[in-house]
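Why show two proteins at once? Because comparison is the fastest way to build intuition. When a single record is shown, students tend to memorize it. When two are placed side by side, the eye starts asking what differs. So, the first record is below.
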Amino acid sequence: MLVTKKAPDFTATAVLADGQIVEDFNLYDNIGEKGAVLFFYPLDFTFVCPSEIIAFSKRIEEFESRGIQVIGCSIDSQYSHFAWRETAVENGGIGRVKFPLVSDLSKQISRDYDVLFGESVALRGSFLIDKDGTVRHAVINDLPLGRNIDEMIRMVDTMQFTNEHGEVCPAGWNKGDEGMKDTKEGVASYLAKHEADL
């Protein structure tokens, strides 16, 4: 389990948001001002994956406004990533998505994040990495189960709230909601006001 530990670093080939292919994309050099979301998906030119990747790309401003860099990763080559980006959505492509796609041909990155499945593809792992490299949230879905990108945005908000205010975020917390002090009195006070909403 990686939560509370430093995210395994890597340097790999990637296709950047502008379509440029680089051979020295480093995770820690590309963590945003306030963190990163690193997500794995099984394969290019498949079925659930494009819906997730397009959903991340459509919400990129939401992540960027929070200082968060989004990074995708699969075991495909940079050339496959590039070709998929150049394929129109109506033809099964993802279009020119607005974040880097990392090539994990050796499958070592997938192994390091414990998402490699059957030594062949990565499960749908999503990792929220704080600005100091600490993994604060992780979720891994089986191959047929698509992610909720809005939930990852909510988790970014919870991480940033706790970092800023030193309070904890109760169940269903959303940006703008009241936090909770992590004391017996704090829990009692919160529940007295919000128990009916849980």
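Second record. Ask yourself what differs from the first in the token line.
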Amino acid sequence: MSKRDYYNVLGVSKGDSVKDIKKAYKKLAMKYHPDKNPGDATAEEKFKEIKEAYEILTDEDKRREYDQFGHAAFDNSRGGFGGQSQYQSGGFEDIFGGAFRQQGQGFGGGFGGFEDIFSQGRGRQPRPQKGQDREFTLTVDFVDAIQGAEKVVELPINGEQKKINVKIPAGIKDGEKIRFSGKGGSGVNGGPAGDLMLVITTRPHAFLKRDGDNLTCTTHVDMISATLGGEAEVHVLDSHFKLKIPAGTQSGRKFKMTSKGVTNRKGVTGDLFVTIQVDTPTNLTEQQKELLTQFKATL
């Protein structure tokens, strides 16, 4: 019975590298090894065939001879490398590190080691994996986000309610996250625990609004102060500022108060923008109405 082409036996091409050949051989050897197919003569013959092909094609000199002369290169009558008994070297052992080392001569002995390598594979510990990160939304007061605060938050972690001490940094913005390393899901196969992340959102303020690091608000001014000029008191959180109102100030005019805004986590402070709303007086007395009428006549 004529021998099959060695390249076809391993399912590789002539141009494939030794690395490709070893990869193909390893796959086939695992499949047809007699220890995995006890009593299967066909598998044993197949194993012999792929081992023979591997030993020829991974040897530079033998592969060159085979590519030039085919199987005849190893015919004793041609004076080549000799028959199969001449090249039953440790090719399989080279790849598998002796795990499939034969205990007898040739293929007549036992094919020991196959069960060992597979049992080791089954017993190998899976790689440690980091636990899942957990993410929750934490809603804080407007003032706490600007000035900073400390809170105790109860969160469901790994099926349990756990209390976490949270330090809210001054100047934190909506959407920013506070990370707690190792407070997330449990690790797998001895891996580290995941992280816990709190996504910050802020409750609206009664009259302040935030735009980045800037604050905006509206201040009411009476008609006389807006007309003749004066001062308005601006309240921002725990601070009070005096704002000079020029004569003739119109409702809707904006004033900028430099560095009176939010100090962010990098230490940069924004500005405060104050919008003026001129209040029209109501419930005037008759005398007041008369005075306004006289004033109107002078315009």
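One difference worth noting in the second protein: The first helix runs from residue 6 to 10.
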